[in-house]
Amino acid sequence: MRSMPGMDPKKVQQMMKQLNMNIEEIPAERVIIETKTKKLVIQNPEVMVTKMMGKDVYQVTGSVSEQFATSEDDIRLVMEQTGKDRETVAKKLEELSNDLARAIIELKEEEKRK
User: Fold this and answer.
1) CA–CA dist 29, 46 (Å, integer)
2) C-alpha distances in angstroms, 24 versus 32, 59, 88, 111?
3) Which residues pair with 71 in a beta bridge?
4) pTM for this one?
5) Cα 23 from Cα 37, distance rounded (Å)
6) Which of 13, 39, 101, 107 is an S-S bond match for 67, by CB 3.0 to 4.6 Å?
């Protein structure tokens, strides 16, 4: 555990013990937070868990990137409009952050170029 700037690490440990707190670092490689519309992916995170009053509190820091979730309805719509297979459509929607109109246009343009 890292010490707090300007504080004696032994005193910090003693205060934490008095408050019945325990902090430990989790050696995580990646943290993913999923919502209904997107995923937040945190690479090379620093994850600390503080156990306090019977609860676990997680603190996560690191480089965050967003990945937008693609719904089945969106995939079906683009498949119907373009005649493309599910895998191609899903990949294009992910690439374009779920921009349906742009995905349809680009997939149709790719077909014309063939």
Assistant:
1) 9
2) 20, 11, 43, 54
3) none
4) 0.54
5) 32
6) 39
39 phi/psi in degrees, rounded to 5: -120, 135
- Predicted confidence (pLDDT) per residue in 38-91, tens digit: 889 999 999 999 888 888 999 999 999 988 778 899 999 999 999 999 999 999
In the chain the domains, ranked by start, together with CATH numbers, are 9-68 (2.20.70.30), 72-113 (1.10.8)
The contacts of residue 23 (CB under 8 Å, 6+ apart) are 1, 16, 48, 49, 50, 51
DSSP characters over the chain: -PPPTTS-HHHHHHHHHHTTEEEEEE--SEEEEE-SSEEEEEEEEEEEEEEETTEEEEEEEEEEEEEE---HHHHHHHHHHH---HHHHHHHHHHTTT-HHHHHHHHHHHHHH-
